[in-house]
Amino acid sequence: MTTHSGKAGAQMTPAERVAYGILGVGLSAMGLRGGHPAQRLLLGAAGVAVAAQALTGRHPLATALKIEQNADGEVKVSDAVTIGQDADKLYARWRDLASLPGLMTHLEQVEVLSEKRSRWTVKAPAGTHVGWEAEITADEPGKRLAWASLPGATIENSGEVLFRPAPGDRGTEVVVRLGYKPPGGATGAVVARMLGQEPGQQLRDDLMRFKREQELGYAPTARGQSSGRAGAGTGTQEGRV
Amino acid sequence: MKAVVWQGTNRIGVETVPDPSILLPTDAIVRVTSTAICGSDLHLLDGYIPSMEKGDILGHEFMGEVVEVGRDVKKLKAGDRVVVPFNLACGVCDPCRRGLFSACDNSNPNHRMAEAMYGGVSGGGLFGYSHIYGGYAGGQAQYVRVPFADVGPFKIESDLRDEQVLFLTDIFPTGYQAAENCGIVPGRDVVAVFGAGPVGQFAARSAQMLGAAHVIVIDRVPERLKMAAASGAQTINYEQEDVLVALREATGGRGPDHVIDAVGLEAHGHGPGALLDTAQQKLRLTFDRITALRWAIMSCAKGGTVSMPGVYGGLVNELPLGAAFAKGLTFRMGQTHTHRYLPDLLGRIEGGEIDPSFVITHRAGLSEAPDLYKTFRDKKHGCIKVVLNPWA
Ligand SMILES: [Zn+2]
Ligand SMILES: [Zn+2]
Question: Where is each Alcohol dehydrogenase-like C-terminal domain found (chain B) (predicted)?
Answer without folding.
Answer: 198-266
